[in-house]
Amino acid sequence: MHRKTLVLATLLMAVCLVAGATDGKWINVHVTENESNTNVKVHLPLNLVLSVIGAVNVEGFEAGKVHLHTEDIDIEWLEILSSIKDAVDGEYLVVESDEADVNVTKKADTILVTVNQKIDEKAQVEVVLPAQIINAIHVDEEDRIDIAALLKGFDDLPAGDLIRVTSAEANVRVWVE
């Protein structure tokens, strides 16, 4: 586990305790590294995360924005995201290979992406994306996604899992309550 990650998690948890914020949604992240038997549990009120996110500046994450690095291609993000949100329910993508199986479906206004890796780490990934969160995704003219705006959209989400990763190296769960 990176020392910076542990320090940041500890600092955020301390701020949470001092702030005493209990209203609204909470973001939870649980990471277990199997080899080192390390567990990290983060349980933060969304309003606290939103208040400090702009103050975090590390490589690749400045002022709450992450660069997508798609300079070589022209993508109309709003058009694509709107099309996905408004699309009918169905199974959109199925990939079956010796390396991994990938499935993308939309059902009841939820987009579900599953990946079952068959080699290397044999990771199993599940991403549950309520279609309504697409309204909170903002990509600026510099090809950066605004994470703060995305997190603000979490306030409207129902409680439940967003991401689950299970692998030989680590297990990760991200959920909103």
Short description:
This protein has 177 residues and is of the alpha+beta class. It is 24% helix and 40% strand.
Provide an overview of this structure.
The chain is α+β, with helices and mostly antiparallel strands and 177 residues long. Helix content is 24%, strand content 40%. It is built from 4 helices and 12 strands; from the N terminus they run αββαβββαβββββαββ. The strands form 2 sheets. It has an 8-stranded antiparallel sheet. The protein has a 4-stranded antiparallel sheet with strand order 3-4-5-10. The longest helix has 17 residues, at 3-19. The model is unreliable at 14-22 (pLDDT under 50).
Mean of residue pLDDT values: 82
Main sheet summary: 8 strands, antiparallel
Strand content is: 35-45%
What gap, in angstroms, lies between the N and C termini?
Answer: 26 Å
The Cα radius of gyration reads 18 Å
Taken in chain order, the helices and strands follow as HEEHEEEHEEEEEHEE
Q: Order of strands side by side in the largest beta sheet?
A: 2-1-12-11-9-8-7-6
